[in-house]
């Protein structure tokens, strides 16, 4: 059973799939729900292990086919640097390029959409006669939560 899941997201992708005439199989749906249930990016093998809790016969190709489908429909993003997956914040409400903030301490991933950044990248590419077909923008650092915890620990250590 998937915990902490916004069931409206599942309903939204079911409706999108129906409107597009594509099939959202139970395994594709389960993989999507597993990805959505975590703020951290999930690897294919982590997803397989979780999927096998409810479907013991699931094999790696099952997960990879589901991931390919979900990415093709714009429901998830691949985190290139870690070869893992996160849900798309707009669930393909419109085609977009995203910017991922990845915490190197807790592995949380936050997706940003910044049209100004994308426009600037496209403008710079055009100046060189280059047409961008794919953006992979990942920034690695420390999230606000981990940064706050580090500050608290430093103050505690200093007070000793």
Automatic annotation (TrEMBL):
Pfam family, one: FUR
TM region positions: none
Localization: Cytoplasm
GO biological process: negative regulation of DNA-templated transcription; regulation of secondary metabolite biosynthetic process
Residues that hold Fe cation according to the record: 96, 135
A cellular-component GO term for this protein: cytosol
Gene3D superfamilies given in the database record: 3.30.1490.190, Winged helix-like DNA-binding domain superfamily/Winged helix DNA-binding domain (1.10.10.10)
InterPro entries associated with the record: FUR, Fur_C, WH-like_DNA-bd_sf, WH_DNA-bd_sf
Similarity comment text for this entry: Belongs to the Fur family.
Subunit structure: Homodimer.
Name of the protein in its database record: Ferric uptake regulation protein
Source organism of this protein record: Vibrio ruber (strain DSM 16370 / JCM 11486 / BCRC 17186 / CECT 7878 / LMG 23124 / VR1)
């Amino acid at each position: 059973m998937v915990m902490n899941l916004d069931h409206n997201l599942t309903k939204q992708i079911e409706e999108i799939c129906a409107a597009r005439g594509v099939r959202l199989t139970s395994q594709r749906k389960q993989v999507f729900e597993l990805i959505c249930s975590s703020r951290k990016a999930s690897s294919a093998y982590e997803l397989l292990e979780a999927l096998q809790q409810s479907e013991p016969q699931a094999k790696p190709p099952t997960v990879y086919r589901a991931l390919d489908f979900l990415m093709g429909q714009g429901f998830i993003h691949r985190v290139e640097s870690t070869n893992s997956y996160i849900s798309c914040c707009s669930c393909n409400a419109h085609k977009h390029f995203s910017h991922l903030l990845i915490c190197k301490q807790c592995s949380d991933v936050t997706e940003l959409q910044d049209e100004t950044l994308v426009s600037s990248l496209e403008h710079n590419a055009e100046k060189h006669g280059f047409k961008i077909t794919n953006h992979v923008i990942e920034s690695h650092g420390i999230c606000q939560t981990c940064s706050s915890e580090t500050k608290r620990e430093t103050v505690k250590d200093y007070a000793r």
